[in-house]
């Protein structure tokens, strides 16, 4: 297990060369990748969202495709389409942008809902259906999507069904003054991505994902997960709580986070650490919460304070 964790940590070290001062975001993204999930990064343009995704694809030797989601992007651009070949009197599938290991969906909330929905099947099942024929997506398959804050020019909210398929939602934010200076110095002699080296292969990543999935969870920790999820459904300020898909995401994230910390078991602190990132985009506040300016982050913090952590011993 130690060697496997070293491989995962080496990916994080490489990504840090390109993305400075955002260690927490890098670790959370790596955790989601190990958990086999997709990542939604919401922030203003220019803070390094795209650089983060490109650095991960290079460090892990993944085939990546990038698509800028503009209003004129069509579903067929994403899933692919069939074209008639006169020579063979048959239709031949032409691969779309998702036929890769890491699909970077840039500014996903700037395109039409119809185009956004083209990602639903592929994100959940790892395959696309074109003209009634299913096409398998290469494994591993990861979607890292960026979106501008709602209200920015040309944006529209993602539907709940789409949002729910992202394992986590994170925000990078502005760098500190010290990191800003380092970024300025580093970009005078070339792009940061050039410094990133490939340290694992696609096969290595599949193996790491499999090992992370084997991490043990005690029944009391499972109960803690259930109570956190249930609290989002019963809170008087939340109109829509976390779905069962969110429960699975929380479980997988906790396992992957424990794996990164060289543990063969999950502790309650693993669950509470990753809970905000799997919850913030899944809960919908009601009108009472909006009137009182209660944010999703605040209500998640209250739930974590309210739900008692189990006193499971380390090393159980």
Automatic annotation (TrEMBL):
One of its GO terms (molecular function) is ATP binding. Residues 230-300 form the ChlI/MoxR AAA lid domain. InterPro entries: ATPase_AAA-3, CbbQ/NirQ/NorQ/GpvN, ChlI/MoxR_AAA_lid, P-loop_NTPase. Residues 38-168 form the ATPase AAA-3 domain. This is MoxR-like ATPase.
């Amino acid at each position: 297990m130690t060697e496997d964790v070293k491989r995962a940590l080496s990916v994080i070290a490489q990504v840090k060369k390109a993305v400075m001062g955002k260690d927490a975001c890098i670790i959370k993204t790596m955790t989601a990748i190990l958990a086999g999930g997709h990542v939604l990064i919401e922030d203003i343009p220019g803070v390094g969202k795209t650089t983060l995704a490109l650095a991960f694809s290079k460090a892990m030797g993944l085939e990546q495709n990038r698509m800028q989601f503009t209003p004129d992007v069509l579903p067929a651009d994403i899933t692919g389409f069939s074209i008639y070949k006169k020579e063979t009197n048959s239709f031949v599938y032409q691969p779309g942008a998702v036929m890769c290991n890491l699909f970077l969906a840039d500014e996903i909330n700037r395109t039409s809902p119809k185009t956004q929905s083209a990602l639903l099947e592929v994100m959940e099942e790892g395959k696309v259906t074109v003209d009634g024929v299913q096409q398998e997506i290469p494994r591993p398959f990861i979607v890292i999507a960026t979106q501008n804050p709602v209200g920015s020019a040309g944006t529209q909210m993602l539907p709940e069904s789409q949002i729910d398929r992202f394992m986590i939602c994170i925000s990078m934010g502005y760098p500190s003054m010290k990191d800003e200076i380092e970024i300025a110095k580093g970009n005078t002699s070339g792009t940061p991505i050039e410094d990133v080296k490939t340290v694992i292969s696609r096969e290595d990543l599949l193996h790491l994902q499999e090992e992370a999935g084997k991490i043990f969870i005690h029944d009391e920790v499972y109960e803690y997960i259930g109570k956190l999820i249930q609290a989002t459904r019963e809170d008087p300020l939340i109109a829509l709580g976390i779905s069962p898909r969110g429960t699975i995401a929380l479980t997988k994230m906790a396992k992957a986070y424990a794996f990164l910390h060289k543990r063969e078991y999950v502790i309650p602190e693993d669950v509470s650490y990753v809970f905000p990132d799997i919850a913030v985009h899944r809960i919908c506040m009601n009108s009472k919460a909006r009137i009182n300016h209660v944010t999703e982050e605040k209500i998640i913090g209250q739930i974590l304070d309210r739900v008692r952590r189990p006193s499971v011993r380390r090393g159980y």
